[in-house]
Design brief:
Blueprint (H helix, E strand, L loop, with lengths): L4 E9 L6 E12 L2 H21 L15 E6 L3 E8 L6 E15 L2 H11 L5 E9 L2 H29 L4 E14 L12 E12 L4
Antiparallel strand pairs: 1-8, 2-5, 2-6, 3-5, 4-5, 7-8
Length: 211
Amino acid sequence: MAPLSVTVTGSSTITREAERGILRVSAKAEGPEKEPVSQAVTSASSELHRMFTELSPKTEVGAATADAPITVFSSTMLRTWHFDLKESKSEKKTRVHNASSSYSVTFRNFAKLGEVIGQLMMHPHVSIDKVEWKLTDITIKSLHSESRKLAMQNAIEKANDYAGVVKQNVFAREINDSGYFSGAMAQQQQQQQQQVPRGHVTVKFESEPEM
């Protein structure tokens, strides 16, 4: 009897709570005169910088302290631009000046993140652009390894199920890594609590040829 050949795909999904919240926020203003607009954004940006600095105390070597709500933050330079707005039913144009500066802030204390968002939403020159949910690099690396192992175990279980029906024992002969996807998978209201690394592998199994 020719050896039995079985090719199956193994997969895995691991769910973990997010460990970091990335707040993306901007200081923005617009108006008919450049100087007041720039000053408004500069002032708002300074307030943001002070707030985020207070929430991210550092150790002597410059790393975030163990109890720091914010682990790291960064900002862009002040950006200014203008455009001419044509008035309705008139050839007259009004010049509108704009200015902005953006921050990316990494929180590990989600309660403080919610508190900060509430405060910033009240500021006339601050806009909440986005909140993203992440795992730390160390956790992601660990989960990718675990996910690959679970995907392989899933493939072995599938192959044994098929081979068992015809009373054959099979062994892995060829493994093709199909890669993995890491992203959020959850209901929207729980999105900050779910991160899902997935493993995916295709394995060819064969039985030992009869002697």
